Amino acid sequence: MKAIGLDVGSKTIGVAVSDALGWTAQGLTTIYWDENEFESADEELKGLIEENEASLIVIGLPKNMNGTIGERGEASERYAAYVKEKYELPVVLWDERLTTMAAERVLLEADMSRKKRKKVIDKMAATMILQGYLDSKGGIM
């Protein structure tokens, strides 16, 4: 059973996928979309779900540091509800506090240029979201 992880932003969606046993997450791609039109990511996301035979979707839930849910978190919740209905798959919202900053730090430590970081930051954040979820489950989902 594979899972797909999503880091949902206002202009991009980072995408990661798990291995079949649910042990590891790998970054796949970044989908460019318009968050005011959920359908703008449908074709690409549907293809990735089918191609990877995903049976679960993990979506990052950006919470404030005090645990409350702000505007970005509410946007992720709305998209999660849409994805659950659209693809008829289970959707898990996963606390993503600090994942983008952690991804940025890893890329900085790797001495990656700003231009290259911008291209991979979203899928790396999606990888960290999905890996966090997988680790909490101890492997096989």
UniProtKB/TrEMBL annotation:
<dbReference type="GO" id="GO:0005829">
    <property type="term" value="C:cytosol"/>
</dbReference>
<feature type="domain" description="YqgF/RNase H-like">
    <location>
        <begin position="1"/>
        <end position="103"/>
    </location>
</feature>
<dbReference type="GO" id="GO:0016788">
    <property type="term" value="F:hydrolase activity, acting on ester bonds"/>
</dbReference>
<keyword id="KW-0963">Cytoplasm</keyword>
<protein>
    <recommendedName>
        <fullName>Putative pre-16S rRNA nuclease</fullName>
        <ecNumber>3.1.-.-</ecNumber>
    </recommendedName>
</protein>
<keyword id="KW-0690">Ribosome biogenesis</keyword>
<dbReference type="InterPro" id="IPR006641">
    <property type="entry name" value="YqgF/RNaseH-like_dom"/>
</dbReference>
<dbReference type="GO" id="GO:0004518">
    <property type="term" value="F:nuclease activity"/>
</dbReference>
<dbReference type="GO" id="GO:0000967">
    <property type="term" value="P:rRNA 5'-end processing"/>
</dbReference>
<keyword id="KW-0378">Hydrolase</keyword>
<dbReference type="InterPro" id="IPR005227">
    <property type="entry name" value="YqgF"/>
</dbReference>
<dbReference type="Pfam" id="PF03652">
    <property type="entry name" value="RuvX"/>
</dbReference>
<keyword id="KW-0540">Nuclease</keyword>
<comment type="similarity">
    <text>Belongs to the YqgF HJR family.</text>
</comment>
<dbReference type="InterPro" id="IPR037027">
    <property type="entry name" value="YqgF/RNaseH-like_dom_sf"/>
</dbReference>
<comment type="function">
    <text>Could be a nuclease involved in processing of the 5'-end of pre-16S rRNA.</text>
</comment>
<dbReference type="InterPro" id="IPR012337">
    <property type="entry name" value="RNaseH-like_sf"/>
</dbReference>
